[in-house]
Specification:
Elements lengths: L9 E3 L11 E3 L8 H15 L11 H14 L5 E5 L10 H13 L5 E5 L15 H5 L1
Parallel strand pairs: 3-4
Antiparallel strand pairs: 1-2
Length: about 140
C-alpha cells in the first residue's frame, strides 16, 4: 500500500457450490467519505451547469432560443441522483444522509429523482416501502 489516504473499498462476493452467497468487505476509503465531500461535488456539478451570465438584449428571440438550446446540450446537467450503499458509509447515515439527499434534490433539474440503493441491508431492518424526505426526518 503506497498511499493509505488513496485506498478504495473492496468487496469479494463468492458464490458457493450450494448456491449460497457471501460477502467479504473492507470499507477502506469509505470509512472516511464524508457528507461534505458529497455536497461539495454536487455543488461543483451544479455550478458548471448554470452556464455563463450573458446579456441577451441584442439577440433576437430565435437567436436567444438557439443559444440556450446549445448551452443546454453542452452543460453537464443532472436529473437523477442515486446514492448507493449508505449502510457501508459510516459518516453518511441518519440526518447526514438525509442532508445529502436534500442537497442533491436542490441541484437536480426540477428537483429530479433521488433514490437510495439499499442492496445488502438485512430485510428485518428495511420493510421495502419507499420513504419521503419527511418520513426520513422523523
Amino acid at each position: 500500500l503506497k498511499d493509505r489516504s488513496a485506498r478504495t473499498a473492496l468487496a469479494v462476493l463468492p458464490i458457493y457450490d450450494d448456491g449460497r452467497r457471501g460477502c467479504f468487505f473492507d470499507a477502506a476509503g469509505n470509512s472516511d467519505f464524508s457528507p461534505i465531500e458529497v455536497v461539495e461535488t454536487l455543488n461543483s456539478i451544479a455550478s458548471r451547469s448554470s452556464g455563463p451570465s450573458v446579456n441577451f438584449s441584442h439577440l433576437s428571440a430565435e437567436e436567444s432560443e438557439n443559444y440556450h438550446a446549445d448551452l443546454e446540450q453542452m452543460s453537464p446537467v443532472c436529473g437523477a441522483f442515486l446514492f448507493g450503499y449508505p449502510h457501508l458509509l459510516p459518516l453518511i447515515q441518519g440526518e447526514k444522509l438525509l442532508q445529502v439527499l436534500l442537497e442533491a434534490r436542490g441541484v437536480l433539474i426540477d428537483g429530479g429523482i433521488t433514490a437510495v440503493d439499499l442492496n445488502g441491508v438485512p430485510e428485518d431492518l428495511f420493510d421495502g416501502r419507499p420513504r419521503t424526505a419527511r418520513e426520513l426526518r422523523a
